[in-house]
Amino acid sequence: MRNALAYAPKGPRQMVAALIRTVFAQETEKDAHRQWRIVADQLRARLPKLGALMDEAEHHVLAHMAFPKEHRAQIHSTNPLERINGELKRRSNVVGFIVSVR
Fold it and tell me: What is the pLDDT of residue 95?
């Protein structure tokens, strides 16, 4: 989302974010890909660079939709990874060396 909003001017950012969120509200992977293309086509007219970014990123961004619905929130978020890195940083400050997981 942050990458997509970087291609939108400040004014229409909320509208762009709302359109993109409609993709993630879809129940199935097929519906999400269909909605992604609809949103990309709508945005391409006014924001061609964003449309091109969406064309490139479609399969990467929607890869988590192939998993069962109850697992998707865990997969598409970077929060678990950020939590691990934060915990490693906290513990390594005590020990005195730096560890990072990516």
Answer: 61
First CA to last CA across the chain, in angstroms?
20
Q: What tokens appear for 63 in the block?
A: 């890869």
Predicted model pTM = 0.69
| Of 61, 66, 90, nearest in space to 77 by CA | 61
Contact 55, 38 (CB under 8 A): no
Average pLDDT, the chain: 86
Domain range summary for the chain, segments of one domain joined by +? 1-66, 68-102
Give the position of tokens 């509208």: 15
* Cα–Cα distance measured from residue 79 to residue 52, given in angstroms and rounded to the nearest whole number: 27
Cα separation, 81 vs 63, in Å, equals 17
User: Quick one: 78 exposed, middle or buried, by C-beta within 10 A (0-12, 13-18, 19+)?
Assistant: exposed
Paired tokens of 20: 């993109």
Q: Which residues contact 79 (CB under 8 A, 6 or more apart)?
A: none
